[in-house]
Amino acid sequence: MYLLDHLVHFVEKPERLVETTKELGLHTVSGGRHEMWGTYNSLCYFGLSYIEFIGIFDLGLFEVSAREPFTLHETYKKKDYQNSVLRIALRTNKIDEVAHHLASDGYEVYGPKDFSRTRPDGSVIKWKLLHFGKENQKIDFPFIIQWDGDDKARYKELVEIGTIKPHQLGNLQITEIEFELEDLSIPLEWGRVFDFEVTGTESYKQVKLPNCMLTFKETMGTNKIAQVNISGADREKKVEIEGTTYLFQT
Asked: Are 112 and 33 in contact, with CB atoms under 8 Å apart?
Protein backbone atom coordinates (compact mmCIF):
# COMPACT_ATOMS: atom_id res chain seq x y z
CA MET A 1 0.00 0.00 0.00
CA TYR A 2 2.97 2.37 0.61
CA LEU A 3 6.07 3.34 -1.38
CA LEU A 4 8.74 5.92 -0.68
CA ASP A 5 7.59 8.94 -2.66
CA HIS A 6 10.03 11.69 -1.78
CA LEU A 7 12.39 13.31 0.71
CA VAL A 8 11.84 16.89 1.84
CA HIS A 9 15.15 18.78 2.01
CA PHE A 10 14.83 22.38 3.20
CA VAL A 11 17.46 24.61 1.60
CA GLU A 12 18.17 28.33 1.41
CA LYS A 13 17.64 28.73 -2.33
CA PRO A 14 16.11 25.78 -4.23
CA GLU A 15 17.00 27.30 -7.59
CA ARG A 16 20.70 27.06 -6.74
CA LEU A 17 20.40 23.31 -6.36
CA VAL A 18 19.71 22.97 -10.09
CA GLU A 19 23.30 24.01 -10.83
CA THR A 20 24.88 22.65 -7.65
CA THR A 21 23.60 19.13 -8.27
CA LYS A 22 24.46 19.37 -11.98
CA GLU A 23 28.10 19.65 -10.91
CA LEU A 24 27.60 16.35 -9.06
CA GLY A 25 26.21 14.66 -12.18
CA LEU A 26 22.53 14.93 -11.21
CA HIS A 27 19.53 16.17 -13.18
CA THR A 28 17.49 18.64 -11.11
CA VAL A 29 14.74 20.94 -12.40
CA SER A 30 12.81 23.89 -11.05
CA GLY A 31 9.49 22.70 -9.66
CA GLY A 32 7.26 25.68 -8.96
CA ARG A 33 5.55 27.58 -6.17
CA HIS A 34 3.13 26.48 -3.48
CA GLU A 35 1.21 29.73 -3.30
CA MET A 36 -0.87 28.54 -0.33
CA TRP A 37 2.23 27.74 1.79
CA GLY A 38 4.73 30.39 0.72
CA THR A 39 7.22 27.78 -0.50
CA TYR A 40 8.84 26.80 -3.80
CA ASN A 41 11.02 23.92 -4.89
CA SER A 42 13.36 22.17 -7.25
CA LEU A 43 13.14 18.43 -7.91
CA CYS A 44 15.63 15.62 -8.49
CA TYR A 45 14.01 12.32 -9.57
CA PHE A 46 15.22 8.74 -9.26
CA GLY A 47 12.46 6.81 -11.00
CA LEU A 48 9.28 8.06 -9.35
CA SER A 49 11.00 8.70 -6.02
CA TYR A 50 12.61 12.09 -5.70
CA ILE A 51 14.31 14.69 -3.56
CA GLU A 52 12.37 17.90 -3.09
CA PHE A 53 14.67 20.84 -2.37
CA ILE A 54 12.27 23.30 -0.79
CA GLY A 55 12.60 26.92 0.33
CA ILE A 56 10.48 29.83 1.51
CA PHE A 57 9.46 32.82 -0.61
CA ASP A 58 6.86 34.25 1.82
CA LEU A 59 7.60 33.77 5.52
CA GLY A 60 4.18 35.07 6.56
CA LEU A 61 2.34 32.46 4.53
CA PHE A 62 4.75 29.81 5.74
CA GLU A 63 4.16 30.72 9.39
CA VAL A 64 0.41 30.27 8.86
CA SER A 65 0.90 26.83 7.28
CA ALA A 66 3.23 25.82 10.13
CA ARG A 67 0.33 26.11 12.58
CA GLU A 68 -1.19 22.87 11.30
CA PRO A 69 0.12 19.94 13.34
CA PHE A 70 2.46 17.32 11.85
CA THR A 71 3.04 19.16 8.58
CA LEU A 72 6.54 19.49 7.14
CA HIS A 73 6.17 23.23 7.73
CA GLU A 74 5.64 22.71 11.45
CA THR A 75 8.63 20.35 11.50
CA TYR A 76 10.90 22.98 9.93
CA LYS A 77 9.75 25.62 12.41
CA LYS A 78 10.26 23.24 15.37
CA LYS A 79 13.80 22.64 14.08
CA ASP A 80 14.44 26.41 14.22
CA TYR A 81 14.62 26.66 10.42
CA GLN A 82 17.78 24.56 10.21
CA ASN A 83 18.20 23.26 6.68
CA SER A 84 18.46 19.51 6.07
CA VAL A 85 16.34 16.55 5.00
CA LEU A 86 13.56 16.70 7.61
CA ARG A 87 10.73 14.47 6.41
CA ILE A 88 9.85 11.64 4.07
CA ALA A 89 6.59 11.13 2.20
CA LEU A 90 4.98 7.77 1.50
CA ARG A 91 2.84 7.28 -1.61
CA THR A 92 -0.46 5.41 -1.60
CA ASN A 93 -3.52 5.05 -3.81
CA LYS A 94 -5.86 4.46 -0.86
CA ILE A 95 -5.45 7.63 1.17
CA ASP A 96 -9.01 7.70 2.50
CA GLU A 97 -8.62 4.17 3.85
CA VAL A 98 -5.31 5.18 5.39
CA ALA A 99 -6.94 8.12 7.18
CA HIS A 100 -9.62 5.86 8.64
CA HIS A 101 -7.05 3.27 9.73
CA LEU A 102 -4.84 5.84 11.47
CA ALA A 103 -7.75 7.50 13.25
CA SER A 104 -9.00 4.10 14.42
CA ASP A 105 -5.50 3.42 15.74
CA GLY A 106 -5.70 6.49 17.98
CA TYR A 107 -3.56 8.98 16.06
CA GLU A 108 -4.43 12.61 15.41
CA VAL A 109 -5.24 12.78 11.69
CA TYR A 110 -5.41 15.86 9.45
CA GLY A 111 -6.71 15.32 5.95
CA PRO A 112 -6.73 14.09 3.32
CA LYS A 113 -6.78 17.53 1.74
CA ASP A 114 -6.57 18.48 -1.94
CA PHE A 115 -3.65 20.59 -3.18
CA SER A 116 -2.18 21.72 -6.49
CA ARG A 117 0.86 23.48 -7.89
CA THR A 118 1.50 25.27 -11.16
CA ARG A 119 4.66 24.20 -12.98
CA PRO A 120 6.94 26.74 -14.70
CA ASP A 121 5.36 25.73 -18.04
CA GLY A 122 1.89 26.58 -16.73
CA SER A 123 0.62 23.02 -16.31
CA VAL A 124 -1.03 22.10 -13.02
CA ILE A 125 -0.38 19.02 -10.91
CA LYS A 126 -2.75 17.86 -8.18
CA TRP A 127 -2.39 15.67 -5.11
CA LYS A 128 -3.88 14.83 -1.71
CA LEU A 129 -2.01 15.03 1.59
CA LEU A 130 -2.54 13.37 4.94
CA HIS A 131 -0.64 14.25 8.12
CA PHE A 132 -0.83 12.42 11.40
CA GLY A 133 0.94 11.92 14.69
CA LYS A 134 0.75 12.15 18.44
CA GLU A 135 1.89 14.50 21.18
CA ASN A 136 5.57 14.70 22.10
CA GLN A 137 6.86 12.44 19.33
CA LYS A 138 10.65 12.58 19.04
CA ILE A 139 10.60 12.46 15.25
CA ASP A 140 7.68 13.07 12.94
CA PHE A 141 6.02 10.22 11.08
CA PRO A 142 6.16 10.17 7.29
CA PHE A 143 3.30 12.10 5.76
CA ILE A 144 1.09 10.45 3.16
CA ILE A 145 0.57 11.59 -0.43
CA GLN A 146 -1.71 10.44 -3.22
CA TRP A 147 -1.11 11.85 -6.69
CA ASP A 148 -3.77 12.55 -9.26
CA GLY A 149 -3.45 9.78 -11.89
CA ASP A 150 -1.68 6.43 -11.84
CA ASP A 151 2.07 5.98 -11.51
CA LYS A 152 2.65 4.77 -15.07
CA ALA A 153 0.93 7.78 -16.65
CA ARG A 154 2.63 10.21 -14.27
CA TYR A 155 6.07 8.76 -15.01
CA LYS A 156 5.43 9.04 -18.75
CA GLU A 157 4.39 12.67 -18.40
CA LEU A 158 7.43 13.55 -16.26
CA VAL A 159 9.74 12.05 -18.87
CA GLU A 160 7.98 13.89 -21.70
CA ILE A 161 8.30 17.29 -20.02
CA GLY A 162 11.95 16.70 -19.09
CA THR A 163 11.54 16.51 -15.32
CA ILE A 164 12.90 12.97 -15.39
CA LYS A 165 16.09 12.49 -17.39
CA PRO A 166 19.12 10.21 -17.02
CA HIS A 167 21.71 11.36 -14.47
CA GLN A 168 25.27 11.75 -15.72
CA LEU A 169 26.48 10.09 -12.52
CA GLY A 170 24.73 6.83 -13.39
CA ASN A 171 21.47 4.90 -13.23
CA LEU A 172 20.62 6.06 -9.74
CA GLN A 173 18.09 4.88 -7.16
CA ILE A 174 17.44 5.96 -3.58
CA THR A 175 18.13 2.73 -1.69
CA GLU A 176 18.50 3.66 1.98
CA ILE A 177 17.70 6.52 4.36
CA GLU A 178 19.65 6.55 7.62
CA PHE A 179 18.13 7.96 10.80
CA GLU A 180 19.82 8.72 14.11
CA LEU A 181 17.42 8.23 17.04
CA GLU A 182 17.41 8.13 20.80
CA ASP A 183 14.49 5.70 20.95
CA LEU A 184 14.44 2.56 18.79
CA SER A 185 10.84 1.83 19.67
CA ILE A 186 10.03 4.38 16.94
CA PRO A 187 10.91 2.14 13.95
CA LEU A 188 8.93 -0.66 15.59
CA GLU A 189 5.92 1.65 15.70
CA TRP A 190 6.44 2.69 12.08
CA GLY A 191 6.57 -0.94 11.06
CA ARG A 192 3.34 -1.68 12.89
CA VAL A 193 1.49 1.37 11.55
CA PHE A 194 2.47 0.80 7.92
CA ASP A 195 2.73 -2.98 8.03
CA PHE A 196 6.43 -2.98 7.10
CA GLU A 197 8.90 -5.70 8.04
CA VAL A 198 11.31 -4.63 10.82
CA THR A 199 14.64 -6.35 11.51
CA GLY A 200 17.80 -5.51 13.43
CA THR A 201 19.41 -5.65 16.85
CA GLU A 202 19.24 -3.70 20.11
CA SER A 203 21.37 -0.91 18.64
CA TYR A 204 19.82 -0.54 15.19
CA LYS A 205 16.62 -1.36 13.32
CA GLN A 206 15.76 -1.58 9.63
CA VAL A 207 12.30 -0.96 8.21
CA LYS A 208 11.87 -2.49 4.77
CA LEU A 209 9.76 -0.56 2.25
CA PRO A 210 9.07 -2.10 -1.16
CA ASN A 211 11.39 0.43 -2.82
CA CYS A 212 13.76 1.59 -0.05
CA MET A 213 15.28 0.65 3.30
CA LEU A 214 14.98 2.86 6.38
CA THR A 215 17.84 2.28 8.83
CA PHE A 216 17.60 3.58 12.40
CA LYS A 217 20.75 3.82 14.51
CA GLU A 218 20.64 4.46 18.24
CA THR A 219 22.41 7.76 18.90
CA MET A 220 21.90 9.63 22.14
CA GLY A 221 20.97 13.30 21.94
CA THR A 222 19.78 13.38 18.35
CA ASN A 223 16.66 12.53 16.37
CA LYS A 224 17.15 13.20 12.68
CA ILE A 225 17.63 11.94 9.15
CA ALA A 226 21.42 11.82 8.89
CA GLN A 227 22.26 10.32 5.49
CA VAL A 228 20.69 9.34 2.18
CA ASN A 229 22.29 6.47 0.24
CA ILE A 230 21.86 6.39 -3.53
CA SER A 231 23.05 3.40 -5.57
CA GLY A 232 23.99 2.96 -9.23
CA ALA A 233 26.68 5.65 -9.45
CA ASP A 234 29.62 5.14 -11.81
CA ARG A 235 31.92 6.22 -8.95
CA GLU A 236 31.53 6.53 -5.20
CA LYS A 237 31.00 10.02 -3.89
CA LYS A 238 29.98 11.48 -0.53
CA VAL A 239 28.72 15.05 -0.38
CA GLU A 240 27.19 17.32 2.24
CA ILE A 241 24.26 19.42 1.06
CA GLU A 242 22.89 21.91 3.57
CA GLY A 243 22.78 19.71 6.64
CA THR A 244 22.44 16.23 5.16
CA THR A 245 25.00 13.74 3.83
CA TYR A 246 24.38 12.03 0.49
CA LEU A 247 26.38 8.91 -0.29
CA PHE A 248 26.45 7.84 -3.95
CA GLN A 249 27.44 4.19 -4.23
CA THR A 250 28.44 2.02 -7.18
From this structure: no
